[in-house]
Write a structure and sequence with these properties.
two-stranded antiparallel sheet, 11 helices, 12 strands
Length: 319
């Protein structure tokens, strides 16, 4: 396993971050198998949110942490202030929930559900540009100083808003945003999969490189686009076609396959795509969502692949 450091945390963060959006208590045995395999491999960062399964992800993670007695060994990321999602999973992005009082309510609700005293990292899951960054930073810093969170960041924010927030935080002597979580992958998108999501382009990546701000990428494997499951003539998920089916990505897939052959017989295009995320010129973590221990172990192969700057640039065809 490879690790990076974040300000405010004693433990270093494993670069492979375990996404838990599909984890539920009903799948407890399977979920525990994935979690145990991840920990055995040296992984220590769990990514959840109060909206994942309407709290079910938090609930089953709480069971695992309690039964394995390993809370002090793990870095728990939680997220709040996502826009309203109903019980059927329908999104209502117009129903903003990015407000200081909702930060507090969501945070306390998640801590109670998980039976924890604190989260290591707390992220705002969405942004509302009508809300001043000062109001949001004030309440996040308050919770950090009162011990409910060790550090904080954002997900799906623009670089301009992050810069404004950290400028304000610096002026107030706050710790500020130490990690950002947009979607960074080898694939480029036609449009966001969900409204309000942020995807990294070259300008966004350069901004991170200049500041060396850590980035934890969700959909780091482009929702399986590089696995070979998707072809020009076959798409099991219409959302994937809507978001990722374009000529640039088909060429990038071919280049990833070509480079994989050069790297070794057991290397695949999906490994190359994940290595691309892990080896940016700024600190990164890749959130992955394996459904079995085998899928998890397979993804870890990417940690052993070295990409040169020239190879990384070559993969970025026509972007």
């Amino acid at each position: 396993m490879r690790y990076i450091s974040l300000p405010g945390l004693e433990l270093k963060c494993s670069q492979i971050v375990l996404g838990t959006s599909a984890f539920t208590p009903e799948r407890k045995q399977a979920v525990f198998g994935i979690l145990d395999a991840y920990r055995e491999a040296g992984g220590n960062v769990l990514d959840t949110s109060r909206i994942y399964g309407a709290g079910k992800s938090e609930a089953v993670l709480a069971m695992w942490l309690q039964e394995r007695h390993n809370r002090q060994e793990m870095i728990v990321i939680n997220k709040g202030c996502h826009h309203f999602v109903d019980e059927q999973g329908r999104h209502y992005p117009e129903k903003h929930r990015v407000k200081p009082e909702i930060i507090t309510a969501d945070l306390k609700e998640s801590l109670e559900r998980m039976n924890l005293d604190y989260f290591d990292i707390y992220l705002l899951h969405r942004d509302d540009q009508e809300v001043p960054v000062a109001d949001l930073m004030d309440v996040l810093e308050l919770h950090r100083r009162e011990g409910r969170i060790k550090t904080y960041g954002v997900s799906n924010w623009s670089t301009a808003r992050i810069a404004a927030a950290n400028e304000y935080a610096a002026g107030k002597g706050y710790s500020g945003i130490v990690v950002n979580s947009p979607s960074l992958s080898l694939a480029v998108i036609n449009e966001p999969r969900w409204e309000g999501c942020t995807y990294v382009d070259r300008a966004y990546a350069r901004w991170h490189e200049e500041r060396q701000l850590a980035l934890f990428s969700w959909a780091s494997q482009a929702s399986g686009f590089f696995t070979g499951l998707y072809t020009r003539d076959h798409c099991p998920n219409p959302d994937i076609a809507r978001v990722y089916y374009n000529e640039t990505n088909w060429e990038r897939l071919e280049r990833a396959r070509s480079l994989a052959k050069q790297k070794g017989d057991a290397i695949t295009a999906n490994h190359i795509a994940l290595a691309y995320v892990l080896q940016q010129p700024f600190p990164t973590g890749a959130v992955i969502g394996p459904q079995t221990p085998g899928e998890l172990i397979d993804s870890l192969t990417a940690l052993d692949i070295d990409l040169s700057e020239q190879e990384r640039i070559w993969l970025e065809f026509n972007c």
